[in-house]
Design the sequence.
């Protein structure tokens, strides 16, 4: 069965694709799986881990929104994965590698989205970047310290998925575009749901080209990456690349800094700071699965690990238990 999966790669993938048989391997060697390629195994390891499940309770843009249809970090991850697979298939690249990288790219993200990341970056020794934390999660923190033991190529895609990253594989480079296409467009959808935007607010010079609906914009941008091809690297044909960047700038101006979306930011920053200070001064209150790294990695990094692993509601509950007085009543 293993030979069949490898043969399928040889038959259908282009010469720019990364073949699973050429992987640089894992941090710890393992016996081959009889029915899955190495990248399929990575996909399964990620989707079965605790950090992946916690993404469902981490916000994307809006903190604890009133409604069931706003994106979470998990639904964002799934939308990125869908776009990454679509691009990989159309470009005859390795879908399994693209999928695994996409599924794991935000495993280290903080509660409260980029507000939580910014808070930890300001107070943690050495700073905090969610893509580096995602790699730390899969290498060290998951499985009670054993890590997920992923392949080099998937780890590389996770670490370099940010806009400034430079992945070593074409599949990793796909993730850069899939992530941006996904979050710009689903954040527009959520902003419209929240009453911050309407589709008519998008500048007409952008919407006339990219499309006036969520579906049309994604189709246009995905097609622009596919039409660019792979001969000159992964890219996006113009004018679509420039217009996508303009749309991202528009979102920063109208949504990401909007008073409704960011109304709780100051509270988040203060709450993260209180939690960080408390656990730095009370390391015995940190669970053993994190605390055991204090001697090797330092208290600051371990506290950041613990806080970054929290869901939004767990962090709020933890803060309430520590700092909000309980109502006393005589019984």
Sequence:
């Amino acid at each position: 069965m293993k030979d069949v999966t490898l043969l399928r790669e040889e038959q259908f993938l282009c010469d720019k694709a990364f073949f699973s048989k050429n992987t640089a391997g894992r941090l710890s060697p393992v016996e081959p799986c009889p029915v899955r390629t190495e990248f399929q195994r990575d996909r399964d390891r990620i989707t079965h881990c605790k950090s992946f499940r916690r993404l469902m309770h981490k916000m994307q843009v809006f903190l604890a929104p009133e409604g069931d249809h706003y994106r979470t970090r998990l639904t964002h991850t799934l939308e990125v994965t869908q776009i990454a697979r679509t691009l990989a298939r159309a470009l005859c690249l390795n879908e399994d590698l693209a999928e695994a990288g996409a599924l794991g790219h935000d495993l280290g993200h903080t509660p409260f989205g980029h507000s939580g990341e910014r808070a930890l970056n300001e107070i943690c020794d050495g700073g905090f970047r969610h893509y580096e934390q995602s790699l730390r999660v899969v290498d060290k923190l998951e499985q009670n310290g054993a890590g997920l033991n992923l392949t080099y190529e998937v780890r590389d895609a996770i670490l370099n998925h940010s806009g400034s990253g430079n992945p070593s594989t074409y599949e990793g480079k796909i993730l850069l575009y899939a992530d941006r296409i996904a979050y710009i467009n689903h954040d527009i959808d959520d902003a419209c749901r929240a009453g911050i935007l309407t589709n008519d607010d998008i500048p007409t010079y952008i919407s006339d080209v990219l499309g006036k609906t969520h579906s049309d914009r994604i189709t246009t941008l995905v097609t622009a990456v596919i039409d660019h091809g792979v001969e000159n690297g992964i890219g996006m044909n113009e004018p679509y690349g420039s217009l996508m960047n303009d749309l991202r700038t528009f979102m920063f101006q109208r949504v990401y800094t909007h008073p409704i979306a960011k109304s709780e930011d100051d509270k988040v920053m203060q709450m993260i700071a209180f939690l960080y200070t408390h656990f730095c001064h009370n390391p015995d209150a940190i669970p053993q699965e994190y605390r055991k790294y204090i001697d090797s990695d330092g208290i600051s990094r371990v506290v950041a690990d613990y806080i970054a692993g929290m869901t939004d509601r767990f962090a709020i509950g933890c803060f309430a238990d520590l700092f909000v007085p309980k109502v006393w009543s005589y019984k």
User: Anything to note?
Assistant: The chain has a mean pLDDT of 93.
